[in-house]
Amino acid sequence: MLNLSSSGCDPNRTLRASWRELWYPPIPSDCTRISSRGSRRTNVVKRDFDLIVYGATGYTGRLIAEYLATSYRGDDAPSWAIAGRSTDKLQKVRADIGAPDDLPLVKADAAEPASLRSMCERATVIITAVGPYQLHGSELVAACAAMGTAYVDLCGEPVWMRRMIDAHHEEAKRTGARIVFSCGFDSIPFDLGVLTLQEKAREIFGRPARRVKARLRKVKGGMSGGTAASAQATLAAAARDPALLRLLTDPFALTPGFTGPSQPSGLIPEYDPSMNVWLVPFPMAPINTKNVHRTNFLLGHPYGKDFVYNEMMVAPGLGEIARVTTETFATVVSLLGTGGLKPGGGPTREEREKGFYDILFLGELPDGGRVNAVVTGDRDPGYGSTSKMIAESALCLVRDVQGEGGTWTPGALMGPALRKRLKERAGLTFSAR
Is residue 11 included in any domain, yes or no? Predict the structure, then answer.
């Protein structure tokens, strides 16, 4: 059994449990009960809605709402609503996505904390697509933590995430609020990909892989204005406070009190003889690596305290190294300026539907043992696939998982339950050998 301290359910504690119990923990009597309808917190009164999609008039928020409206109908549909600043815009989104005419609309504004608290009181889970989170998300996390309301976002802003962990973990623990960051392409495929590989390593060798390398082999997709705005906000914050650069570059920035071994930077193109390919830096690696290490930390280091992890992209040839490096540099330059994509814009429907990704995970054990895992997605990673992943993460919290209040990663809290949902409903595949 898990060794839960008498002081309460603490996801920042060190767990002592068997490997299987780490992935399928028993239900602590003071934290969660699963009902026939789904997951319900024992310390929360029944809410008006299972889910509220906050920011539904934005590019990604609209995709999330459209996915729920088209994928869950009839008896399978959750009770849900869409929320934002403008009722007129919400009415238009409701009509455009083919949602029922009676889908409730909730007015909420990041600049009006009282409206956020009122919204949080009405839902079991808040799905938020209102970013950049460091500019518009802090009051919502505070409201969810205070109200015992579950929360999922698409955050790839590690400095802000650390601030929220430090500020609200204890209150979320007390109220039962399950705060889950990074429920999109950053970082679910990588978080669950490592989890899948380590399960296979335990199955084959009886112990985890000490070293895991993630390699993005194929990808096709675009960037939205919201992503560009988040990157701009992060760069601007670092320019104002150079001390933030330490958190941005520290792979253990989200594991308070723990620092593991030195990790590969992944910042310089390199040749990988094991794959016979050239590798280039992957722009999302800084946030994904932090979340993977936090999952290991929250679960009591089942991957080991000496776990080493990095991510890079595969370049088809020498010429591609120059091309990808140039494109990455050009993107960074554009983010530093005022032009380019604006929030609310992003890939077209055709671009999203033609997108895809394929990630290979290579696990190495000290004695020479090897284990591999593969994760794929059937839409563009940032938006077509991400909108499905965050919606299914919220439904997983409503219907599937037991879990304690606190600040979590998707892998640490939802693990195999979320993976099962994503395979069945969201077009992802997971395999290991």
Answer: no
Q: What gap in Å lies between CA 134 and CA 275, rounded to an integer?
A: 38
CATH code: domain of residue 165 = 3.40.50.720
List, in sequence order, every residue forming a beta bridge with 428; answer none if it has no partner.
377
CA–CA distance, 388 with 381 (Å, rounded to integer): 10
Q: Which of 182-196, 198-212, 342-356 has the lowest mean pLDDT?
A: 342-356
Q: For residue 126, tell me if it sits in a domain.
A: yes
Q: How far apart are CA 9 and CA 403, in angstroms?
A: 9
More confident residue, 64 or 20: 64
pLDDT tens digits along 201-244: 999 999 999 999 999 999 998 655 566 667 677 777 777 887 77
CA distances from 68 to 40, 140, 354 (A): 20, 22, 20
Cα first-last separation, the chain: 29
Question: Are the C-beta atoms of residues 121 and 106 closer than 8 Å to each other?
Answer: no
Nearest of 48, 54, 147 to residue 108 by alpha carbon: 54
Average pLDDT, the chain: 85
Asked if 354 and 166 count as a contact pair (C-beta separation under 8 A), the reply is no
For residue range 311-320, list pLDDT tens digits in order: 999 997 655 5
Whether residue 280 sits in one domain with residue 148: no
Q: What average pLDDT score do residues 176-188 get? A: 96
- Domain containing 266 equals 188-381
Shared domain for 30 and 107, answered yes or no, is yes
Give strand pairing partners of 277: 272
Whether residue 135 sits in one domain with residue 238: no
For residue 429, tell me if it sits in a domain.
Answer: no
